[in-house]
Write a structure and sequence with these properties.
The chain is mainly β and 106 residues long. The chain has a single domain, classed as Jelly Rolls (Sandwich).
Length: 106
């Protein structure tokens, strides 16, 4: 192990949410970034909340309605969304969804 680089292989491992649930797994937790892999069953929702950290949502699979402040975005695989600190946001899976959440800073 070295402090010069980190290799994360968990992104290729299956992470599926059982019906009516959301599953999350922290895949990296370092000084300036925390990366969490989420899997949502269709119809599941993370209700509106905020974070004191800047964050990125990277949709890997599926489709979700992501509300960012007063705007709702139809997110799909390949989309990357940057969120400013303290931005109210929520996620509702339209289909089974896998996404990465990158929380930046401390």
């Amino acid at each position: 192990m070295t402090d010069q680089f980190t290799i994360i292989t968990a992104l290729q491992e299956p992470l599926d949410a059982p019906t009516d649930s959301i599953v999350s797994r922290t895949v990296y937790n370092g000084a300036g970034v925390r990366i969490v892999l989420f899997a949502f069953a269709a119809g599941q929702e993370l209700t509106e909340h905020t974070s004191t950290r800047e964050a990125l949502i990277h949709v890997l699979d599926g489709e979700a309605a992501i509300t960012l402040g007063d705007e709702t975005v139809a997110a799909q695989a390949g989309m990357l969304i940057r969120m400013a600190p303290n931005l109210p946001h929520s996620v509702r899976a339209q289909s089974p969804v896998r996404m990465l959440l990158y929380m930046l800073g401390k």
